[in-house]
Amino acid sequence: MSQEKEYWDLLEDYASEKLDADVRIAVDEWLSKNEDARTTLVGIESLMEELTDQQEMDRFHQHLVDEIISDHAKEKQGRTASIKWYWVAASLLVMVTGISYFSRDGNDTIEKKLSLYLSDPYDLSDQVRSNTSSSSSWKDAYKNFDFERVIALLSKEAPLMPFEKLYLGLSYLYTGQSESAIAILKTPFNNPYLDPQRKWFLSLTYLKTGQNERARPLLEGLAKNQSFKTLETRELLKLLDPPLSSN
After folding, report:
1. Of 10, 36, 105, 228, which has the fewest Cβ atoms less than 10 A away?
2. Backbone φ, ψ for residue 165 (5° rounding)
3. What pLDDT, in 10s, does the model give residues 110-127?
4. What is the pTM of this model?
5. How far apart are CA 90 and CA 144, in angstroms?
6. Helix (H) or strand (E) holding 103
């Protein structure tokens, strides 16, 4: 399997955030150089956002495998064919499930989005789990959703590594200590992989505390760079800039 084809085959897992950190970094670099792949990824993310029913998601996955991945295995016509078959699969999905990408819930609010995005704690990446230079105690506590213990353990460490700062900030966020989360997350990590994650959760914390104008530039940067949670950032920006009333 060629490296190029392997990256195309990983797009669905990339959109579902199922890739290990090192693989995601490699795909990020590939995406930064491939406009067609970025366009396809945005389409995949958009459709996945619409598919909340597991049966519908299974159908989407099957179409993706049948139409895109098999296309790469059989054809050597470049990326144009991939995008063509992606939209064929998407059209079939709309007909089968009755879901229209263009019909979104008009009752979305920032509060609803925050509730959705913060409903499940952000997982520990495989890279973090396997990092032996950081204590396993706080990782075990985090996996068990014992965020107070994570705070107690990491607050004793100095200096903290960037990923430790991220999960300390998240633990403050998940325990309702928004100001402490902001204090941790507002300082750049100088890490190209972790910093977009920091900006995403910092923007959510700002929105949670009503500091929308502080969240806006963070979200705009994430949307522009397509570095992390691209679809979600665009949705939040739409809610921050609602269409003008016709009255």
Report:
1. 105
2. -60, -40
3. 999 999 899 889 998 887
4. 0.58
5. 38
6. none
